[in-house]
Design goal:
12 strands, 2 domains, alpha+beta, 337 residues, twelve-stranded antiparallel β-sheet, 39% helix, globular, 15 helices
């Protein structure tokens, strides 16, 4: 299992990089005035079309942001991963400095009739020769589609995953021993006919977004142990979810959008979310809650609940929240507990 986690992104190094970068962005991002997200469509075009799940992270924008410069612990991020440490020592690659953008297309079994696969494309600064030497020691060399392909063992070593340089500053990582999935549906280079990319076009310019088709809701759907036919029908109506983050001055604007089957379901979902917010406000106003919460945490949560905009337009429901730098205090307070 450990080898499987480490194989897809050069002996786990880039896998760890992408994971930690995602954690940084969604848990802590505080952009500043100098943060400018790079356009996503160009790097998206390097992926095969038709994926039910797309994730995009502009790490260059994160590094240029006020958040990154003023994060609570500005020292280097320590990864408890021996393989990634060995990778840095062997190749000089460090995701904090060298990885600029990552886009991932995924076909999980629950969302696609196609075989499970994942394709990632990353932009950054890579020492091709050092990475080649490292790959030769950890895996093997192959040639496909006129390109040099590095294969790394997956699982128990009976299968392989692949990495290929697309140019000196761009690499592709493919789940499996063949890079053919990278070129699948290559003729579909724009958003036309690709539902996930159509939705990506709506959030173009965001520092990050994650778009996924919602898996089928099981027949025994009962969140929190409570079964409700009305709640189950509402959940089944949501077909797509889009999460996007965009710097706005010193703050971070976060948008979460659910796309329903029809506008009636969207309005019903909007009403349910507004009711949940009302309950959340009432809970915060409880004297017991006030006494048990850190004042800074209370203030942040109260602001989020009060200021969050919940709107419906057609079949879409959107929650829009603008997070201030005070949100960082929540993470620090949680760590100190």
């Amino acid at each position: 299992m450990q080898r499987r986690r480490n194989s897809l992104l050069i002996g786990s190094a880039l896998a760890a990089a992408t994971l930690v970068a995602g954690m940084l962005l969604y848990a802590n991002l505080r952009p500043g005035e100098t943060a400018h997200a790079s356009p996503a469509p160009e790097i998206l075009s390097a992926l095969p079309a038709g994926a039910p799940t797309l994730v995009y992270l502009d790490l260059a924008a994160v590094r240029a942001s006020g958040f990154y410069r003023h994060r609570p612990n500005p020292g280097p991020i320590t990864l408890p991963n021996k393989d990634y440490t060995n990778f840095i020592q062997s190749t000089g690659f460090d995701f904090e400095k060298d990885l600029d953008r990552v886009v991932i297309a995924s076909w999980p079994p629950s969302l696609s009739k196609e075989p499970k696969k994942t394709v990632a494309v990353a932009d950054g600064r890579f020492d091709r020769e050092k990475i080649r030497d490292y790959a030769m020691r950890k895996g093997k060399l192959d040639h496909q589609e006129g390109k040099e392909v590095f294969l790394f063992p997956a699982g128990n070593g009976a299968s392989w995953n692949s990495i290929v340089f697309l140019d000196d500053h761009r690499i592709a990582l493919i789940e499996g021993p063949s890079i053919a999935p990278l070129f699948a549906n290559a003729s579909a280079t724009d958003a036309v006919g690709d539902p996930a990319r159509e939705r990506a076009a709506r959030v173009d310019g965001a520092a990050a977004f994650a778009i996924t088709r919602v898996p089928p809701v099981p027949a025994n759907f009962a969140p929190g142990g409570a079964q409700s036919a009305e709640l189950a029908a509402m959940a089944r109506s949501v077909q797509w979810i889009t999460l996007a983050a965009q710097p706005e001055g010193d703050n971070l604007r976060v948008s979460l959008e659910g796309e329903c089957d029809n506008d009636a379901d969207a309005r019903q979902l909007q009403a349910a979310l507004q009711l949940l917010r009302m309950f959340g406000r009432a809970s915060l106003e409880s004297p017991k809650t006030r006494q048990s919460m850190d004042p800074a945490a209370f203030g942040v949560l109260q602001s989020v609940l009060n200021d969050a905009d919940i709107a419906a337009a057609g079949e879409r429901v959107r929650i829009l929240v603008e997070l201030t730098p005070a949100i960082l205090k929540l993470g620090e307070a949680h760590k100190s507990q």
